[in-house]
Structure formats: structure tokens, C-alpha cells
Amino acid sequence: SSASVSLMLVIALLMLLPVLVGAESECKACCDLTNISITVESEECGSCFTISTMSCAGLCQTQERAYRSPVAPYFQNTCNFREWRYETVELPGCPPGLDSSFTYPVAVSCECSQCDTDSTDCGALSTQHSSCLAHTHY
């Protein structure tokens, strides 16, 4: 009967609910903290070195419209820093009197949100390679 089919459908949906709710939390490529290396070149100090730090990377759920209206705003979430702190290292090989400190951001937590141009470079990543051939790793 149709009542038993409806009941079976409700039971099946209830059984799938924990799977559907937990799907995002088990996402292997979701927006999260990740280790990255930043190569820093200092012409003034004559040195190149690599810093290991934390950043945010991964996928964010989005729904892109088939038609972009010139009237309706279009927003797409990307993986961004939610919270961060700054760390400072001393550049090796700097002459006396030159400020040898280099400060960089360290991600503490991440979120899917619109890119905040006040705190983030929202443009495309640079494809230029560093001219550093040999460098120190921090």
C-alpha cells in the first residue's frame, strides 16, 4: 500500500540523515589549516630562506548560477583565514643598522567566506618562481 511505501521512505531518510549531516565534517578537501612553505628573498641582506607556516586551503561549497544577472550581486565563498596571528623572524646576513625582521601571518583557524580585500590579496596567485637557488629553511 502507499502508506507502507511512505513509511519506508521516511525510515530510509531518517537512516541517511546522520550520513548527510556528517558528510561535510568528513570532507577530505574541505577548507582547513594546512602547512605551507614561503620562500623569502632579501636583496638588502643577500639571503633567501624558507619559512614553514600555517595557511588555509581547501574547497568551499558554492552554488554558481547559470546566468549572472547584472542587477543581482554574485558572491562566491573561498577558503580564508578566520583568525590569525603574526610571527617575526630575523633575516640572516643583514648588514648592521638594517632592519632584519620579517613578519608574516600564521593562520589559527579557517572559514569559507567572501575574500576580505582589507586583509587579503584576493587576486590570482603569482606564477613567478623565486630566483633563490640555495636557501636556508626555518
TrEMBL record:
It holds the Pfam family Cys_knot. InterPro entries: Cystine-knot_cytokine, Glyco_hormone_CN, Gonadotropin_bsu, Gonadotropin_bsu_CS. CDD domains: GHB_like. Keywords: Disulfide bond, Glycoprotein, Hormone, Secreted, Signal. The keyword Magnesium does not apply. GO terms for cellular component: cytoplasm; extracellular space. It is found in: Secreted. Residues 30-132 form the Glycoprotein hormone subunit beta domain. SMART domains: GHB (SM00068). Transmembrane segments: none annotated. Belongs to the glycoprotein hormones subunit beta family. Heterodimer of an alpha and a beta chain. This is Glycoprotein hormone subunit beta domain-containing protein. It comes from Electrophorus electricus (Electric eel). The gene is FSHB.
